[in-house]
Amino acid sequence: MTQLNIKELLRGDGALPFACEVDPAGLEFPSILRYASPLTASGSVRSSAGLLTLTGEVRVSLRCRCDRCGREYAWEYAGALDTVLVTEHQDEEDPDVFLVQDDCVDLEEIVTTAFVLGLDSKTLCRPDCKGVCPRCGHNLNDGPCACRPEADSPFAVLGQLLNDNED
Length: 167
Ligand SMILES: [Zn+2]
Ligand SMILES: [Zn+2]
Fold this sequence. Notes:
Order of helices and strands: EHEEEEEEEHHH
Oligomer: single chain
Number of strands: 8
Low-confidence stretches: none
Bound molecules: zinc ion
Largest sheet: 6 strands, mixed
Shape: elongated
Radius of gyration: 24 Å
Structural class: alpha+beta
């Protein structure tokens, strides 16, 4: 059940805690190999001076493929939920504003939207991933490959100079 009834908050100020799980099936991204857990979210909806806000956190365990080196890695995703709820739609385009319908908030929509928007454009196995050697394909996070000494040779430097002159 991912519909949260907030009827009592529509009558006056207050706060209502929530916790839910959302099945990530259908949320497919090239760099996500699989979901190792459902999306779990918790937080609260607050009503204050006529303004409805939902804040909290969403977590999920992911198996991803590194965009730079191609290695599979685990990612414990954690992102913030911070949205405004409205009873009448004002701006369809605003991704941070959600509509209350029949006194209910669609937590699944809010949680999945926050998760999708919170995904980094690049998923890396580590922030300083060194990638792979363009020549032999060796994963440089495991240390230098056999190509390296050659790249540092005077001939490689000469080749670099020639390349620079071509620009
Ligand atoms: Zn990597
Ligand atoms: Zn190499």
